[in-house]
Amino acid sequence: MGIDLELHSARPAHRDWRKSRATLLRSSYEHGEALAELLGSLRQLGVAGRLAGVDPYGDTLMNEQEAAAALREMQEIRENRKSREIQENRGSDGLRRLDVLDELAGMLEQCAATPGSYVWFAGD
């Protein structure tokens, strides 16, 4: 199980992969397993919010306002002592989860700064 990330300039045609390429701005496919583990860990800790609500088995879209809210959640996660252990642990692919958070933060920041854009979390 993994989650692929894509940033789109407009709502992607997520039912039609080929059409969705027209709005693609940026993608991240290499850390899907670690991202799914990280987001699953947030749910296990009882962290509420948009990030914990990402469906690891389906598609989740966030618009620019939701991305901005998710960025605020990430700041709280980074400051939370309990979740620091999660951030520092390595995922199954050997990446530190903090590295995965940094990559996700970059995608969310770009989305929050781009009117009309969406982050697409494509789960397995």
Task: Give your account of this protein's structure.
This protein is α+β, with helices and mostly antiparallel strands and 124 residues long. It has helices spanning 17-20, 32-45, 64-79, 81-88, 97-112, and strands at residues 3-8, 24-28, 59-63, 118-123. It has a four-stranded antiparallel sheet. Helix 2 runs antiparallel to helix 4 and helix 3 (64-79) packs antiparallel against helix 5 (97-112). The radius of gyration is 14 Å and the shape is globular. The protein starts with a strand and ends with a strand.
Q: How would you sum up this structure in a few lines?
A:
The chain is 47% helix and 18% strand. With 124 residues, it is an alpha+beta fold.
Can you lay out the helices and strands and say which pair or pack?
Blueprint: E1 3-8, H1 17-20, E2 24-28, H2 32-45, E3 59-63, H3 64-79, H4 81-88, H5 97-112, E4 118-123
Antiparallel strand pairs: 1-2, 1-4, 3-4
Helix pairs in contact: 2-4, 3-5
Count helical runs: 5
Overall shape: it is: globular
Proportion of helical residues: 40-55%
The average pLDDT value, as a whole number, equals 85
Spatial order of strands in the largest sheet: 2-1-4-3
Uncertain runs are none
Class inferred from helices and paired strands: alpha+beta
Major beta sheet, specifics? 4 strands, antiparallel
Span between termini: 6 Å
The radius of gyration computed from the alpha-carbon positions, rounded to a whole number of angstroms, is 14 Å
Q: Estimate the strand proportion.
A: 15-25%
Count all strands and give the number. 4
Order of helices and strands: EHEHEHHHE
